[in-house]
């Protein structure tokens, strides 16, 4: 094998790698159709409705998802006036390519035999495989930013700006959560990380035979990664870039037909990719969970694919569950969560983990002074997180602003009051005062003239 072939295909012959690529491509397309149907069925169950009911003779509505895909392929493609056509059609291609590329380094199983060739159920693996996944996700942001910029529409531009801001913000927290995994596993290669989680937990010198999956060993990192998954995938409750009540459809508002289908496909494949990364780095990958890991035949060979996809589907179910349960959060709360909560907690957790690993290597964990100082620091941090924070500030006086000053109606910012509402409130107060004064005034009408008293009041109120 030449050096070029070794760089491209690793230890596999070229046709084995080609088979893997084709199988992964077809598998992701079929899995996307299944996940579209799966999400609709689960949402229907959770919301006490039928869900997909068309073509029920074929796997209870699966034909509806297939029909939607065929419709998008043959639907007319409309290009908005004033759009940059080259960039407009290049953007969904970038998003589509990036969503498939990450699967090149994700292991679906262990070593198996394919047509007499021993190979891993993984296209390739590199020493910095996880960094490759993060880099591909960062490039995928350009597909969204360029879509909004080239569409020449205000909703698309706002959606793309929101998407780029939230992805960049939450990628920082995601990268810090994965740094803890690198420190514990000692590698950035996905296959090495999966194998490191196969080591059983030993508590107080007793082997529990429970796999040391990092969702348990690195619980703070796992929780932070789960939160950042929703920010990276643009799904509820963090789908501000596609908020239909505000931005119609966000960055994809002007797209139709097959280009829109590319974004639709990329969204579901990105969800599957995030689930696969979560499975690989925190849930043990293709290795069997406890107690099935005690049975050798259930933790080797082709059985690993079954465990991998079962774990991924459970994570996807969690995506759907959250969508059915939680409303969309406000934009400023969403950004505050990323920059002011997740990133600081990730930094502190990585620092504590580094100190603990260094202390274990130097033998400080048996020193009571070090343990006492570490306990004080941990308790202090927990107390600050639970009880600390900024002191309550007095509410500033509301500022009056004109919502139509820029030509478009805009909502008031915190501390601002619409001038129209202030004027309306003044008119209502004055009207009430006139009515009350007229009602409290001594009446000069006889009981026979009482019918004219109310019209008089109404005439005075209407004069305002």
Describe this structure in words.
- With 464 residues, the protein is mainly alpha-helical.
- The chain has helices spanning 3-9, 14-46, 62-74, 85-101, 129-151, 154-185, 190-196, 214-217, 219-233, 244-247, 257-282, 303-325, 331-362, 368-387, 419-440, 453-463; strands spanning 111-114, 117-120, 200-203, 206-211, 399-401, 416-418.
- A two-stranded antiparallel sheet has the order 1-2. It has a two-stranded antiparallel sheet with strand order 3-4. The chain has a two-stranded parallel sheet with strand order 5-6.
- A hairpin with a 2-residue loop joins β3 and β4 (206-211).
- The chain is globular.
- The relative contact order is 0.09.
- Residues 1-9 and 433-464 have low confidence and may be disordered.
In brief, what are we looking at here?
This protein is mainly α and 464 residues long. The protein has a two-stranded antiparallel sheet with strand order 1-2. The N and C termini lie far apart (92 Å).
Q: Which helices and strands appear, and what pairs or packs with what?
A:
Layout lengths: L2 H7 L4 H33 L15 H13 L10 H17 L9 E4 L2 E4 L8 H23 L2 H32 L4 H7 L3 E4 L2 E6 L2 H4 L1 H15 L10 H4 L9 H26 L20 H23 L5 H32 L5 H20 L11 E3 L14 E3 H22 L12 H11 L1
Parallel strand pairs: 5-6
Antiparallel strand pairs: 1-2, 3-4
């Amino acid at each position: 094998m030449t050096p070029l072939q070794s760089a491209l295909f690793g230890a596999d012959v070229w046709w084995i790698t080609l088979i893997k690529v084709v199988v992964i491509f077809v598998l992701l397309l079929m899995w996307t159709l299944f996940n579209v149907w799966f999400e609709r069925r689960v949402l229907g169950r959770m919301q006490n409705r039928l869900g997909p009911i068309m073509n029920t003779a074929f796997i209870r509505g699966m034909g509806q998802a297939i029909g939607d895909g065929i419709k998008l392929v043959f639907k007319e493609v409309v290009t908005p006036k004033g759009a940059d056509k080259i960039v407009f059609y290049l953007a969904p291609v970038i998003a589509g390519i990036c969503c498939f590329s990450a699967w090149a380094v994700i292991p679906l199983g262990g070593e198996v035999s394919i047509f007499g060739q021993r190979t891993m159920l993984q296209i390739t693996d590199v020493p910095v495989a996880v960094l490759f996944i993060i880099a591909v996700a960062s490039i995928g942001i350009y597909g969204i930013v360029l879509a909004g910029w080239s569409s020449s529409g205000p909703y698309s531009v706002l959606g793309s700006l929101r998407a780029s801001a939230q992805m960049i913000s939450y990628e920082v927290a995601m990268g810090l959560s994965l740094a803890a995994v690198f420190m514990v596993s000692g590698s950035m290669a996905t296959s090495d990380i999966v194998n490191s989680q196969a080591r059983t937990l030993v508590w107080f010198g007793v082997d529990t035979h429970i796999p040391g999956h990092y969702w348990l060993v690195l619980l703070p990192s796992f929780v932070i990664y789960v939160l950042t998954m929703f920010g990276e995938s643009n799904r509820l409750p963090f789908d501000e870039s596609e908020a239909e009540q505000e931005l119609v459809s966000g960055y994809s508002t002007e797209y139709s037909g097959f280009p829109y289908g590319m974004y639709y496909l990329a969204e579901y494949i990105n969800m599957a990719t995030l689930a696969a990364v979560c499975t690989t780095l925190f849930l043990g990958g293709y290795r069997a969970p406890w107690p099935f890991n005690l049975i050798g035949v259930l933790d080797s060979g082709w059985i690993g694919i079954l465990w991998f996809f079962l774990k991924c589907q459970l994570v996807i179910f969690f995506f759907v569950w959250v969508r059915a349960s939680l409303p969309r959060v406000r934009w400023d709360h969403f950004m505050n969560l990323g920059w002011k909560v997740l990133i600081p907690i990730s930094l502190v957790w990585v620092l504590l983990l580094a100190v603990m690993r260094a202390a274990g290597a130097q033998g400080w964990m048996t020193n009571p002074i070090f343990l006492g100082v570490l306990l004080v620091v941990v308790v202090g941090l927990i107390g600050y997180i639970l009880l600390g924070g900024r002191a309550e500030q007095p509410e500033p006086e509301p500022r009056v602003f004109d919502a139509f000053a820029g030509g478009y109606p805009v909502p008031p910012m915190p501390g601002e009051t619409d001038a129209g509402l202030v004027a309306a409130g003044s008119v209502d107060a004055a009207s009430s005062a006139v009515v009350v004064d007229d009602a409290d005034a001594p009446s000069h009408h006889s009981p026979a003239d009482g019918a004219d008293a109310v019209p008089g009041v109404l005439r005075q109120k209407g004069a305002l």
